[in-house]
Amino acid sequence: MKLIVGLGNVGRKYEQTRHNVGFNVLDLVATRNAASSPKLKFDGNAMDVTIGSERALLLWPHTLMNRSGQSVQPAMAFYQLPLNDLLVVCDDFNLPLGKLRLRTQGSAGGQRGLEDIIKRLGSEEFSRLRIGIGPVPDAWDAADFVLGRFGPSDRAMIDEAIESA
What we know:
There is one protein chain. The chain is of the alpha/beta class. It is 31% helix and 28% strand. The chain is built from five helices and seven strands, in the order βαβββαββαβαα. β3 (44-51) and β4 (54-61) form a beta hairpin. α2 packs parallel to α3. The longest helix has 13 residues, at 152-164. The radius of gyration is 15 Å and the shape is globular. 36% of the residues are buried. The mean pLDDT is 96.
């Protein structure tokens, strides 16, 4: 059993924002793998899927980005999963738009959702797939940038990155 977590914020206000690319990746994985109906579990939407021959739980935390660990930690504990069975998918404004970076461990790198997961799990030793949404334009506040939507010229590029992820 694997746990795949997509980070984002819930609610219509946040749909299709840069900060929600983790949710977008999970939406596509669910669609492609004939997932079951989502259930409200672990402070989020949880859905069982089979990817190839591997059973996985997809988890969309409903805790808002900065408290994602509040959802992830109970799911890990319930299924008694080791850290190497966790993959977190999130945005990264330090990476160029559309660039993917997969790491098996590391720091939060300024990503507050990852920071909270690391804090609650007590370890940085889990996989994360970062999807580039940057750079933040000069004179923009980083929070305003990540909570903004992709412009038409960026949409095709981010859709391709979501597909690759």
